[in-house]
Structure formats: C-alpha cells, structure tokens
Specification:
Elements: H1 5-14, E1 18-22, H2 26-34, E2 39-42, H3 46-49, H4 61-74, E3 79-83, H5 93-105, E4 111-115, H6 121-129, E5 134-139, H7 145-148, H8 158-174, E6 178-182, H9 186-195, E7 200-203, E8 211-214, H10 216-219, H11 237-254, H12 268-282
Parallel strand pairs: 1-2, 1-8, 2-3, 3-4, 4-5, 5-6, 6-7, 7-8
Helix pairs in contact: 2-4, 5-6, 6-8, 8-9
The structure holds 3-methyl-2-oxobutanoic acid.
C-alpha cells in the first residue's frame, strides 16, 4: 500500500521507526521500494552524488523535476519527497508555492522538503495551504554551507540548541508534516523528537529520532568523495561495481566478451546471400 504523510504520522504515534533513503533514478527507487523502505527522498545531494558538484548550490528545478519523475515512476509504495533546490523558495513565498507545485505536477512527488526554520515558516504555511505536504530540514542545512563555512555539526552550544528547538516548534506550527534533523547532537534530537507531534527523521542525529535517512550512495559505499562520521557502509557496492567494470574491461580487451551465447544468429541462406551482396559492393 502506498505510504503517505498520514502513514508517517501513524508510525510516530505507534512508535514504529521510519526508514528513508535518497534515490535519484527509477531502478534504484524500485529496488528500495521492493526492500520495504518507507520513504524515498529525491535529495538535492543529487548535486554531489550524481552531478559531481562540490555542494548542492548549483542544483536546478529542472534537475529535481527530471530525477524526481524518474524516482516517482519506480516507487510503488514508498512516499516520495522531492527537495526544493537552492533559491527555489528562499526568494519569496510566491516562488516557493510555484516551485513546490512544479515538483508535484512535473516531478510527481507526494511532498517537498525545504531547509530552514522560523525564516521559512511563511513559505511552509503557504505551500501546505495549497495541499502540498512539506518536510522541514534543520541542523546542518547543506544549502547554507557557505554561511556555515563547511560541513560541520550544528547546535552543540546552548543558544544554537535553543534556536533549533524554537525552529522545530515553528515549522510544526507552520504545517510541516515531518522534520529532518541533520548533524546535531543525539541528546538534542531526542529532546526535539519528544517535544514534537510530527515525526523527526535523523541523519547524523542519533537513534532517538522517529526515523532515519541516509544518502543511498553513502550507505552502499559507492560515493567516496567524503564520508561523514554518521555513515555506516551496509554493503560495499562500490567495490563490487569496480570489480565488475574491471572484469568487463579485461574481457573486451582479451576478445572473450561477447561470446557465442551473447550474439544473434542468421539463417545460412540469408548469410550466404548477404555475403554475396557485400562481395558485389566491394568489387
Ligand atoms: O539532499 C539530501 O540528500 C538531504 C539529506 C542529506 C537529508 O537533504
């Protein structure tokens, strides 16, 4: 059965943990869906993982729509949440509503995610009022990387921790159906999780959150440009891929691939006729 934002809320109320992973394409989404993952985030980490940028700043609406639509076609049961890219919602409430609408209409997501707390509450309120569910994102918000001065954990001191609590309550009040907590102390994430009615989805925020999200290429050890402390490699897919690519390269160069069983045959009389035709052409 298709998961919805209502499923998320029910899972929190029943104390069931929510599993979420990023995906950026149809085949990966299908695999995650068939593995029972509750929700798929078409994250703007697409910029790092798929497009090779150093951060998420250059990701466009067109990128998110293109990959969002591919994931949506592969996700039968998982809730699909699509990230709003940098400057698609910060500029105005109007831009936020129009762009959230495009991610739903063209990207076929079931919800959008945006970064920020009190400062983006007018956007969250306006988007949810149009019937589009919004997931908020607090803590380390990668679109603010230039203000943070790097990918560093957040809200470790008293005042930033208090601000994070105020932000979490504010985005809930504005209508967010869930909130991502990235790279914050586990004990703080646990306090926030207990304070909120809506589910918290942690990434580098400890086990006290209502659910967890990871970048799928990180947890399969496919992406090695940088490895945050909170990432666990659940499988070494990167190494399996490299071994497969190496074996292919070797067989192509040795002429052992393709073998007879990988080729298409032709009836003898057609072959004889086509040989004669080719000979005629070259005389
Ligand atoms: O873009 C992304 O993958 C994210 C996760 C890190 C939560 O926002």
């Amino acid at each position: 059965m298709k998961n919805t934002v209502v499923t998320f809320q029910q899972m929190k109320e029943r104390g069931e943990k929510i599993s979420m992973l990023t995906a950026y394409d149809y085949s990966t989404a299908k695999l995650q869906d068939s593995a029972g993952i509750n929700a798929i985030l078409v994250g703007d980490s697409l910029g790092n993982v798929v497009l090779g940028y150093p951060d998420t700043i250059s990701v466009t609406m067109e990128d998110m729509i293109h990959h969002g639509a591919a994931v949506s076609r592969g996700a039968q049961n998982a809730l699909v949440v699509i990230d709003m890219p940098f400057m698609s919602y910060q500029t105005s409430v109007y831009d936020a509503v129009v762009n959230a609408g495009r991610l739903m209409k063209e990207g076929r997501g079931q919800a959008v995610k945006l970064e920020g707390g009190e400062e983006v509450c007018p956007q969250i309120k306006a988007i949810t009022q149009t019937g589009i569910p919004v997931m908020a994102h607090l803590g380390l918000t990668p679109q603010s990387i230039n203000a943070f001065g790097g990918f560093v954990s957040q809200a470790k001191e008293l005042e930033p921790a208090k601000k994070l609590i105020r932000d979490a309550l504010a985005v809930q009040e504005a209508g967010a159906f869930a909130v991502t907590l990235e790279c914050v102390p586990a004990c703080l994430a646990e306090i926030v999780t207990k304070l909120l009615r809506i589910p918290t989805i942690g990434i580098g925020a400890g086990a006290g959150c209502d659910g967890q999200v990871l970048v799928y290429a990180d947890m399969l050890a496919m992406f090695n440009d940088f490895r945050p402390k909170f990432v666990k490699a659940f499988s070494n897919v990167g190494e399996h891929m490299r071994a497969g690519f190496r074996a292919y390269d070797e067989e192509v160069k040795a002429g052992t691939y393709p073998a007879e069983e990988h080729t298409y045959a032709m009836q003898d009389e057609v072959y004889d006729a086509i040989r004669a035709y080719a000979d005629e052409l070259t005389q």
